[in-house]
Amino acid sequence: MTAVRSLLRFWPDIRRKLHVYLTIIALTFAANAISLLVPALMGRIVDGPIAEQDLSALWLPIAAVLGIGVVEAVALWGRRMIAAKVVSQWEITWRARIYDRLQYLSIGVHGSWESGQLLSRAINDMTQLRRFFAFGAPFIVSTPFVIVTGIIVLTVMEPAFGLIAVLMAIPMLAGVIVFNARYQRESRASQDTMGVISTQVEESVQGIRVIKAFGRAPWVTERFEAISAHLRAIEVRKAYLDSWMWAGTMTLPRLAMAAVIAVGSWGVLAGWTTVGTVIAGVTLVMVLRIPVEMLGFLLSDAIMSVTAAARYWEVMDTAFDITDADGGIDDAPPSRAFTGVLEFDDVAFGFPDTDLLTLRGVSLRVAPGETLALVGATGSGKTALASLVPRLYDVSSGAIRIDGTDIRELPLNELRRLVSVSFEEPILFSATVADNVRMGSPGAGEAEVWEALEIARAADFVRALPAGLDTEVGEQGLSLSGGQRQRLALARAVIGRPRLLVLDDPLSAVDVDTEERVQRALREVLHASTTLIIAHRPSTTALADRVAVLDDGRIVATGTHEELLRTSRTYRDLMGASAPEEVRR
Ligand SMILES: Nc1ncnc2c1ncn2[C@@H]1O[C@H](COP(=O)(O)OP(=O)(O)OP(=O)(O)O)[C@@H](O)[C@H]1O
């Protein structure tokens, strides 16, 4: 029942189009129910014009049969025409909602789901729901009425025939209950496994270079075959259940038909019924066979849709854990002026899926316009620390403040306008160079884009691209080198001259000379921006106003590059690792 509730939760959308949807159901019912009249007409023909050999009385019932056929066809045509528009609108609305929700869920939540699961929910499950609401749902609502109407007509025609139909319905109902429980389990397993398959396809497409370079095609193929075999096993079990259900829904109407023929023939001989009534009864059972047989298919389709709906609501019900202070997320909060003091006050942080603390007792103050370089061994928590500033994650304890205000008190979108970020792994979207850079400051003019590209030392290579700023990059466009992509991502971070700049090793893939030129440009042009930069090379840390050394989640030293070279062994060790490069310079 809880499962069915997930389908009923679409009620507010359905209610808005209720008059249209009721028309769809009424047309479905009409198309199916009207054919129940044909057997009664058949009986009349046998007992009337045929028995009385009066052919002139034949044309009326035959015209009626023809009319019934026309009504049936028109109703089915109308149902489809109306359903297509309404239901495809629901599909895109629900898909848009799930997409929208995904944009607002935190990185922690995204991390806890496989991307393929989200993909299959947004695509396959929504398609399943569209098909169900267009076809399955109107039929599943109208079919029981058609069957009950048929049984009533049969009973009116001949009570003994009605009793036969009712007796057949009992095992049918029992079968449905058993089938329903088992099919639900298999359906969930099947749709979840589709999610895993999506993840594997996505991973292998994204990682195709690694797979090829390491000659690991057989390994990924094997992995894919294993999960496909798992899906196959589930689908086979589903098909077995389907087969039993279908065999049942096909056998029972035939049993009913045999019983009606037997009881009817006896009735004709005993004189309590007529040949026409028996023919009408048999024909009616034959007509009723179609909706009864459809029940099996409708039921499995409904269960898959219930599962799809449950998977949809799981995403939609996931709470936003990183929000504005009032629990919502304001898309357009007002902008205020900040001077840009960034302060970490006894910050501790652990990733959501572990009990371990990645950062402990971190206290730092970065003054407006100051550049603080953060250094530390790999895995020491630098990226974690940087992620806390735009609230990709929230601190576990302590606080981060901007101009004295806890960042959790600032509207999320105001904070993210205030803080610009560039990551080591630069992500470009399938769009032009200009649009990729403008993501950092929507509405920025061409001059601002060029200025940002100049700061990131990307202007020269962008000018050399086939269509300059309008060159398509990202997955569907031109391939850029790692260093080029990093510089575009940096341009995206610096456009609009943000008050606070968080740069997570933004130039790890560019040469030392370019890195130094970018660093100088950042200092000159963005002298008012407070900058936190994760760095590995002495060339970067030497240019920073101050350096903080992170060791196993704690700040162990702060000072200028020269001071730390003198006083911090950890710092010397870290820089020593880069010394050969500096010597080469
Ligand atoms: N999503 C996550 N869940 C749990 N632990 C994580 C997660 N991401 C990172 N970690 C762990 O947190 C620790 C700090 O990671 P972080 O990425 O901050 O290190 P880093 O100093 O930036 O390293 P690097 O210089 O290699 O980029 C590491 O031990 C890492 O394995």
From TrEMBL:
Q: Which residues form the ABC transmembrane type-1 domain?
A: 22-304
InterPro entries according to UniProt: AAA+_ATPase, ABC1_TM_dom, ABC1_TM_sf, ABC_transporter-like_ATP-bd, ABC_transporter-like_CS, P-loop_NTPase, Type_1_exporter
UniProt keyword Membrane, yes or no? yes
- MF terms per GO, please? ATP binding
The UniProt keywords, alphabetically, are: ATP-binding, Membrane, Nucleotide-binding, Transmembrane, Transmembrane helix
- Give the residue spans that cross the bilayer: 20-38, 58-78, 132-154, 160-181, 269-288
SMART domains from the UniProt entry: AAA
In terms of superkingdom, the source organism counts as Bacteria
Please give the CDD domains that the UniProt record associates with this protein: ABC_6TM_Rv0194_D1_like (cd18543)
Q: What is this protein called?
A: ABC transporter ATP-binding protein
Q: Which organism is it from?
A: Brevibacterium pityocampae
